[in-house]
Amino acid sequence: MEARTAILVRTLRGLAGFWATAAMAAAPPADLLLVGGRVYTFTWDEPASDGAPAANAPRSTVGFRPDAEAVAIRGDRIVFVGSGRDATAYRGPKTRVMDLGGATVLPGLVDSHTHIVGLGEKQSQVDLVGVASEADAVARVAAFAKGVPKGEWILGRGRDEGAWANHYPTKQLLSERVPDHPVVLSGLHGFAVWANRLALERAGLSSATAAPEGGEIVKDASGEPTGLLLNRATSLLTDAVPGPTDEQYKSYVLAGLTRMARDGYVAVHEAGADRRLMKAFQSLDAEGRLPVRVYAMLSVSDADLCREWLRRGPDRDNGRMLTTRSVKAFYDGALGSRGARLLEDYSDRPGHRGVSGTQYGFDQALVADLMKGGFQAAIHAIGDAGNRETLDFIESVLRAQPESRVLRHRIEHAQVVHPDDVPRFARLGVIASMEPPHCVEDKAWAEARLGPVRVKGAYAWRTLHKAGARLAFNSDLTGSDHDIFYGLHAAITRQDKALQPTGGWYPEERMTPEEAVRGYTTWNAYAAAWENESGVLAAGRWADVTVMDIDPLVVGASDPGRLLHGSILATIVGGKVAYAADALRKPRR
Ligand SMILES: [Zn+2]
Description:
The protein is an alpha/beta fold. Helices cover 33% and strands 21% of the residues. It has an eight-stranded parallel sheet. It has a six-stranded mixed sheet with strand order 10-11-12-13-15-14. A five-stranded mixed sheet has the order 2-8-23-24-25. The radius of gyration is 26 Å and the shape is globular. Residues 12-23 have low confidence and may be disordered.
């Protein structure tokens, strides 16, 4: 039952209470019942393009307030959203009841641009961030090694080299405690690598090995490598580590997706899947092991794979855990490295404008064929020239085949857009798929690249949205932290984690808390053409739900800095509890 229907039922109860109660009591029990929540259904209308909430948004004079308390789930669908009192009708002897104790419930979060293998790979390494001493680091590796078959490589990362400078660790203790696995531990900043004896052996490093120019193999008095390699010598070890086997690769994919479930996400849009990644997704899907939904964009760089899919055609139905009907291509480079294509010279490098299109490897004919074949194109474009040329390209395809517009083509990043091109997004129905974190991470140098005028068209969420463009928000992980609280905070404040700069960086581009949440929920549902299945909490929709300990609509308005301390309490995907914090884990009947 929809929230609005629930309100209607409450009204009816005043008039004909007996009838309404009898009707509710007839409902078959739910499998899972969430009660005691601050539930925001997002079934009310979209805010205006300047962020003003719709007239039917659940608000009082002080701001947003939840529009429901309970969610009932049967199978993979929501069957009821409404008051706690009405929810009791869905409680049966076998219903699992989660008492949320006032936690906030949102439509399931979606990260609409991820690179999941990198995240999983990180999960599959020993995390040495914050380790205080050599002994602690070795203890952590030794504990990790217990779960790894002997002979397999163990990788770790995150110890701060700065803290090593006065007393470098050696292979001694590490080799004693972890003798049977080659171990390679990278520093936080990647300029020092520490290894055990077996790793040095496998890499063929000995007293006879000379360091490359710009690097150092630290050696002891007898000339033996101590296990520490610096700067350009680090590659002697890191290059010796074999790439993951298919099974390991698949485990990275699973680890990355599991981490996303842990962090509140019910789905990811994977921005560029080649054959190997598609195989891993398909295999996990066939085994029923995908913890979150995957909306896969095929990587156009894997042209053979794309041509196969072109013959087969896109997935048309929804409701699966894996949906493939989008393709990812690159039109230009990145702004930081000055690879993004600009209309005028880089402000900090005269004579240079970056590269784009065919020069950058963009396969125009293949992308056009895929678009005509029913695939959504998601094209990476960063510079103002890169964006203009991408819009030109999409426009040319739409001219040849106007019905392709319904596929909702996207520009990934849309990072710097010339004012003349801003209205074209709405005109062509192109989604601007953007990363709130990028703005606060790039602010230190973006203006140097672009100068004071062009920078106003950078990360210009509000400008694009006001001009009618649809937005989709995401992290581009592992490039940025996918933490939703960081993302919401960046979108609402345009401040970094240290709350800088005061008042926000070009604050006129900020989003409201409601828009920030929509950017990761309803708007991302639209970007995958899932808006009839998800994006809001209502009867009949996918049972995709996120529970958190902070109310972003209230706190985002009153004290947004506090959002950075929020945490995820539960993630429900298709009715299954993909993650629940300890406090919620105990089933109550
Ligand atoms: Zn990306």
